[in-house]
């Protein structure tokens, strides 16, 4: 009988210790995905050379990056984020506005924030020629949310 | 699927009773106590003492209905704060579990120890309060602030099935110490909106695939009602 009790106690502690093993694997708060296109041939992607990106009063997200797309985080404490995109010596300022909504994901991930009614409130035109918003709801990172023509 | 599970659960009771009807009578005659055994779970008061903000109590009871079968009931109340990496919530509610234990242990003459397997149907009525959460973001470019919504989700319910394995040993006359582990599967729940029942009183933590585990240590006393010759 005693043997069984010892076995049961060991078994039950093993089970208790197994509890905290779930790690967050689901998609959480999405970043804003920006894709760069060619202004003269709008169907073609066009990479930018040495792009530096930062949010106003913040450090750089990208520094001298080359490529045709970027993913930048949006501010979760207010309903607008202002980014500055610098190519060469030209700087353009973009102001995004949105509504925030917190959506439950899972025990280990908790809540994620999604962005609705996403808009480009203002934009300067030093090197950026045009822009389009692909979706007004940003709830995943699978496709581009905005395109920038240059 | 859920209906089928409930049906299977009900059928199992009939199967148990038919099997027992076929048992032969023993030739050696001994007196055995048949009665109501009542007890208390020893883990919950310890957790209440160790974990701040958590309270709980569970009363257990069983009656020997046939030679190796016991009808068992557990009644409990829980008020528990769960702290996850990005969440903090409180679950408050009560539960009832009812079912049957089958004693597989062959006792010596006059002994009433048990090694048993059992099934339970569980039901809980509870409230969840989402105390706080921090939106989950990769990186630290914009640091999110902790939100404290204190949203209360009332009148939530859960039904589940439980498979129990345990032991009971008579340590003093009519006084039993017991330990058991249980595996649980949710049959149905009423979920809160934009949240999930991550903890259910009596069920404990709800894991992936709606499963759960439980551990019990009980101290119970047998109130002898009838002594029946075996």
Strand residue percentage of chain B: over 45%
Order of helices and strands of chain B: HEHEEEEEEEEE
Distance between the termini of chain A: 79 Å
Strand % of chain A is: over 45%
What's the SSE pattern of chain A? HEEEEEEEEE
Low-confidence sequence ranges of chain A: none
What count of helical segments of chain A does DSSP give?
1
Going across the biggest sheet of chain A, name each strand in turn.
3-2-5-6-7
Mean pLDDT of chain B: 86
Uncertain regions of chain B: pLDDT < 50 for 5+ in a row? 15-23
Oligomer: heterodimer
Keywords:
heterodimer, A: 150 residues, mainly beta, 5-stranded antiparallel beta sheet, 4-stranded mixed beta sheet, 1 helix, 49% strand, B: 230 residues, 8-stranded antiparallel beta barrel, two-stranded antiparallel ribbon, 2 helices
Summarize the structure in words:
The complex is a heterodimer of chains A (150) and B (230). By secondary structure, chain A is mainly beta. Chain A is built from one helix and nine strands. Chain A has a five-stranded antiparallel sheet, with no helix packed on it. Chain A has a four-stranded mixed sheet with strand order 4-1-9-8, with no helix packed on it. The radius of gyration of chain A is 23 Å and the shape is elongated. In chain B, a hairpin with a 3-residue loop joins strand 8 (199-200) and strand 9. Chains A and B meet through helix 1, strand 6 and strand 7 of A and strand 6 and strand 7 of B.
In short:
The complex is a heterodimer of chains A (150) and B (230). Helix content of chain A is 11%, strand content 49%.
